[in-house]
Amino acid sequence: MPVERIATLILIDDDTRRRATISHALASHALHVEPFENVFELGATWPRAGAVLLHERPGAVPALIEAMACQNQWFPVVAFSEEPGVQRIVRAILDGAIDYLAWPALAADLALAVNTAIEHAASTGSAKLREVMARTRVSKLTRREREVLGGVASGLSNRRIGEKLEISPRTVEIHRANMLHKLGASHTSDAIRIAIEAALVQ
């Protein structure tokens, strides 16, 4: 995909000087950069298309994915940090980042990573995002709520789930209500879809 077709690059970094450096460097690569100190600054003003370049700290990628889920948005995420270790990179990728760069980086490398991320997102559609968002939502559940979700997604009644987990149908009902609330699911069918997307059931 040509660089000029990228609508926006959302840059999220709490370091003012680094934001200015990156914005200036990427301007020469025909990228429109919108810098933000953190994900909360975006509020509801997400652009229609583009990618996110995120200065990664512990928990930053899951927080960004959660914010996108709340806005029903999907942007491929390229994370970066100073001298990242292998475990840190792996964790960020598992959390939903498409790529990870070590900072400082050349502007050409940043631009290439952003374009590659967008091409990857275009080829895989929104399937990866749905999976990551679903896993983020499921991670909020307690172990018991997750077990109840698995039973619901398998088509079991409250009574059968209770028998399987050795708890009363009434207790299953309580866990089920809590599970639906935490998932942001209006109906059981929504919860089942989320479970499938999170690969909780096949």
UniProtKB/TrEMBL annotation:
Protein name per UniProt: LuxR C-terminal-related transcriptional regulator
Domain Response regulatory residue range list: 8-118
Organism expressing this protein natively: Novosphingobium beihaiensis
UniProt entry keywords in alphabetical sequence: DNA-binding, Transcription, Transcription regulation
PANTHER family: DNA-BINDING TRANSCRIPTIONAL ACTIVATOR DEVR_DOSR (PTHR44688)
Presence of keyword 4Fe-4S: no
SUPFAM superfamilies membership: C-terminal effector domain of the bipartite response regulators (SSF46894), CheY-like (SSF52172)
Location of the HTH luxR-type domain: 134-199
